[in-house]
Amino acid sequence: MTTTADPTTTQPATGPEQVRRLVTEVPGPRSRELHARRQTAVAGGVGSVLPVYVERAGGGVVRDVDGNSFIDLASGIAVTSVGNSEPRVVSRMAAQAEAFTHTCFMVAPYEGYVEVCETLADLTPGDHAKKAALFNSGAEAVENAVKVARVHTGRDAVVVFDHAYHGRTNLTMAMTAKNLPYKQGFGPFAGEVYRAPMSYPFREAAPITGEQAAARAIATIESQVGAGNVACVVVEPIQGEGGFVVPAPGFLPALAAWCRAHDVLLVADEIQTGMCRTGAWFACEHEDVVPDLVTVAKGVAGGMPLAAVVGRAEVMDAVHAGGLGGTYGGNPVACAAALGAVAAMRELGLAERARAIEAAMLPRLRALADRTGVIGDVRGRGAMLAAEIVRPGTTEPDAALTARLNAACHQAGLLTLTCGTFGNVFRFLPPLVMPDHLLAEALDVLDEVVDATLRA
Ligand SMILES: *Cc1c(COP(=O)(O)O)cnc(C)c1O
Question: NCBIfam families under this entry (predicted)?
Fold first, then answer.
């Protein structure tokens, strides 16, 4: 079942036709019908960016139940980096599902779990001895990284940053910066979480270097927490939900050096940035930063729920036997999917493909910024790119225009997302197997949508 064809240039053997095509209004009648059913069955607190109900997805396309095909610039939030139903993922999952679906690794173990841990130890930054533990979601991985860090250091405090996003469980809500929609009404939150200022070059009052931004964060930590109380500093090498914020060069290395000097563990939350998304296996590699622990999820398993904490063997081993685990963590079918996804990333050269997507998109986004004046900053790495929408000539966020642009993209057949503390970041997360012709078409449509929206 494994195909050797390059899905970036050819029609995949399986999956929807690689075209953008709207055949009804958006959402169409069948989606509206399903949406009405949903209203009585699904809790209102669960939202959907674009309520078209999906029938099939693959390559660079999501097709809905009305037959509309959207160009996928979301990848299910940076998850389907290898594309939906990637043949290497599907064939391994099918074989595993037929053999057995669950024993619980804590009850009776299996090879797939071990192989995923070996693979992630190999792929994460640094050539020291590493070990890993597997979980179901990103938030669960972050929680477990904190558990490991607290046991290893014998300290309580966890340092996070402005604009950070780490999940929706109680501890990770506390670690997440933004109130609405993630935290409102859900307290009280976990204690011993402290927030330091981030390096956010576009929003600095005056330009400062990465080293200066790190010194500012460190001063906050030392004065408000005390280095000797800090178990770990948890940082996204490029912030995700917070606005695709790329810290100034030098910020992460300076932070890493301070952590090393004070026996504080550096935890890189690479849940969104990892697994080829930014043009490297992990985003820390762009600045030669070697974290003590790395959290991995989203893109790791081709759409299946799998997450990991990977780190220094002696740190991971600090926890007593039985202290880490969970009923489903490292489920065998999810592990098979992860091994298939890694095979696809290697065989299709998807880190390189992410860099090619950056090379194609960045100049177009910059030209759009120059031409329209409503994009204050274009940033990101690889296939994790964003445009920050502002009132022309200022840094004042324009969340209303961002929402209008996003809705107009949906109406034009692009599946796009927004993010950011101020709701004004238009973000692009195409599958790394996005065919060239669809990426080019998406950029043309984006130009037209922005022009038409600004004229309206
Ligand atoms: C998505 C995300 C999480 C949470 O992952 P879930 O699987 O949704 O729990 C944590 N950290 C970062 C950086 C993320 O992007």
Answer: GABAtrnsam, PRK06058.1
CB 149 within 8 A of CB 293: yes
The domains of the chain, with CATH numbers, are: 29-72+350-455 (3.90.1150.10), 88-348 (3.40.640.10)
CA–centroid distance, 271 to ligand 1, in Å, is: 6
Query: Is the CB of residue 176 less than 8 Å from the CB of residue 164?
Result: yes
Range 95-104, long-range pairs (CB < 8 A, 24+ positions): 95/336, 96/332, 96/333, 96/335, 96/336, 97/333, 99/332, 100/332, 101/331, 101/332, 101/333, 102/328, 102/331, 102/332, 103/332, 104/327, 104/328
Query: Rounded to the nearest 5°, which phi and psi values hold at 216?
Result: -65, -45
Tens digits of per-residue pLDDT, 220-266? 999 999 999 999 999 999 999 999 999 999 999 999 999 999 999 99
Distance from the CA of 25 to the center of ligand 1, in angstroms? 33
- Using the predicted structure, report yes or no on whether residue 73 has a pLDDT greater than 60: yes
**Residue for token pair 């290697």:** 346
- How high does pLDDT run on average in the chain? 97
Q: Which long-range contacts (CB under 8 A, 24 or more apart) does 401-409 make?
A: 401/374, 401/453, 402/426, 404/453, 405/449, 405/450, 405/453, 408/449, 408/452, 408/453, 409/73, 409/445, 409/446, 409/449
Token pair 């209102």: residue:
44
Give the 3-state secondary structure of residue 132.
strand
How close is the Cα of 383 to the center of ligand 1, in Å?
A: 17
How far, rounded to the nearest angstrom, does the alpha carbon of residue 51 sit from its chain's CA centroid? 21
Give the amino acid at 387: A
DSSP three-state, residue 375: strand
User: Which of 160, 170, 239, 272 is the best mutation target for the ligand 1 pocket, counting ligand atoms within 8 Å of the beta carbon and taking the most?
Assistant: 272
| Rounded Cα gap, residues 451 and 367, in angstroms | 13
In angstroms, the CA 334 to CA 313 distance is 23
* Tokens representing residue 32 in the block: 């509206």
CA dihedral 357, 359, 365, 371 (to 10 degrees): -150
Alpha-carbon distance of 159 to 267, in angstroms, equals 10
Quickly list DSSP for 269-307.
E-TTTTTTTTSSSSGGGGGT---SEEEE-GGGGTTS--E
Task: Kindly state the average pLDDT of the residues 375-397.
Answer: 98
Return the residue matching tokens 């930054």.
125
Q: How far is the CA of 140 from the centre of ligand 1 (A)?
A: 9
Section 183-200 average pLDDT = 98
Q: Using the predicted structure, report yes or no on whether residue 2 has a pLDDT greater than 50.
A: no
